[in-house]
Here is the input.
Amino acid sequence: MASRTSTRRALISFFTFMSLLSYLRAQGVATARISGTLTDDSGAVLVGAAVQAKNLEMGSSQSTVTDSGGRFAISYLPIGSYEVRASNPGFDPVVHSGIVLTVGGDLVIDFTLKIGQARQDVIVNAQVSRVETQTGAVSSLVSSEQLHDLPLNGRNFEQLMLLAPGVSLVPSSLAQTVTGVPTNPVYGNQNNYSISGSRPVGTAFLLDNTDIGDFFNHGTGSDVTGAALGVDAIAEFQILTNTYGAQFGGTGAVVNMASRSGTNQFHGAAYEFLRNNDLDSRGYFDVDPNGKPTSAPAYRRNQFGGSLGGPIRKDKLFFFANYEGLRSSLGQTQIAYVPEPYVLKGQLCAVNPQSNSPGATTCPATALTQVAPVVPSIQGAILSLYPRPGPTAPDLGGYAPYPERASLLTSQSYSLGRLDYSISSRDSLFGRYVTDWTNQTNPFAGSVIPLWPDLEIAHNVFVTAEERHIFRPGAVNLFRVSFVRNHSNGNTTREVSALNLFPSPGRENTSVTPGGGLSTVGANGADPFSVTQNRISLGDDVLWTWGAHRLTVGRCRRRAFACPRQRQPGRALATHPRTPESWTYRHREYRRASSSLP
Here is the structure.
């Protein structure tokens, strides 16, 4: 009876512990880990041997000792170049140099120590195997060399995701793919990516353990331009496509990014890229009002910036800063269909002039029909918004093609700042701040008649602070706090009285399609809109390693506030209230694997 009672109590305790862990979410995803085994030259394991991993770029180090099986593990190491030193009394120390830890990496480094007097280190330069044996995750790495050396059209680093197998591009719209002009400011103009057939909106974009996806869970770029700037601010990123751990979140795939940090050496860069229309050929629709070919519209694009990183206090305090700016004026030609002069007099053509005489510029006088003695004032005011066709423009039956030219004006500024502080051998701290501002004026947002330019603004802010504490070798804690703000809005910057058909305070021009082949006139039907989301997250992760076992637990609490607003012409303002102020618990993990260590 007593045995049953003790068994029941043990089971109750176990399931209680597991229920508590169900609220825990492991993190530490932007760091790396090394493990291995120490033996002597006879193959016997070395117990209590010292192992030290030193970051060659920042001068920091982390140490541990081998257990009864000669095993060691050092977790939550910042990415970078390392040398790993193993030593034991009575043996020559061995140093593995040239160890490069990548984001999410988990390397196995084994040592064989020979009996000696420990007078000098034995340097081993043999390359460590990059084959992942500690986890079953399927992943691909985009290294710093690929990020900084491969050419990128527009310096959009997300394009490099296509280097990984199983990644497919999902354009935000077909029109944007063909013309390069953003078309959906409310939902966002970022390109999305389907990874291994998963839904694009299920991909989690993590920067230094912080989910930076926007309100609609798109990529990291600006909602307005769709461009993800800051390639020089990213050290590297990992694309996890399948069977990855619960600490990463996501419902389909994960893009796990790590920002660059300062080192003991000052390093920086400056650049500017210029593009214009000097060598551009004219497009098919680049014609004058009479249909004669003309030159390509003006285009000026400047992309510039720089980065600088280095020590504030050697081996202790480091900084890194990055700025990238984009200024663009993209000339565009749109073909509008405008009324013939006789339409303004209340007349219509009974035949299509092109049927009887191809290239005819007006309707035959015998085919004109007076349908109204006087054009009503409202209709007349709307028709007056159209430009007059050229003298030799073909009459298509009351309307004629007319080329309109205007420029898409874009200004985007991306900035990143990061500080790393090695407080002691047991504690380290880092903080990172990112801001991404975009202003864009789209003259053709609502109509091919550029009388209603649309001003769209996007502002993203990503802030993360993280502290790492080592309780003892094999027990590490990470605590972080993060803030993410995504905001975009759009407004029509000009109105005309002719389309103020339903006058009321704050109501924008409506949109009118006269018919008869004429182009639609009016403001962008999506304006005005505003989409804002603020997310605050607190997280804490603990990793215990003992013997051949490893337990990783973590907890993340996130509070999200969202307020999308939009007014449709002829409709009332629609405001979606803030999301309820409730804690959201996400993915969790409880792991105990006897095979996690060699």
Summary: The domain at 135-260 is CATH 2.170.130.10 (Ferric Hydroxamate Uptake Protein; Chain A, domain 1). Residues 10-28, 569-598 have pLDDT under 50 and may be disordered.
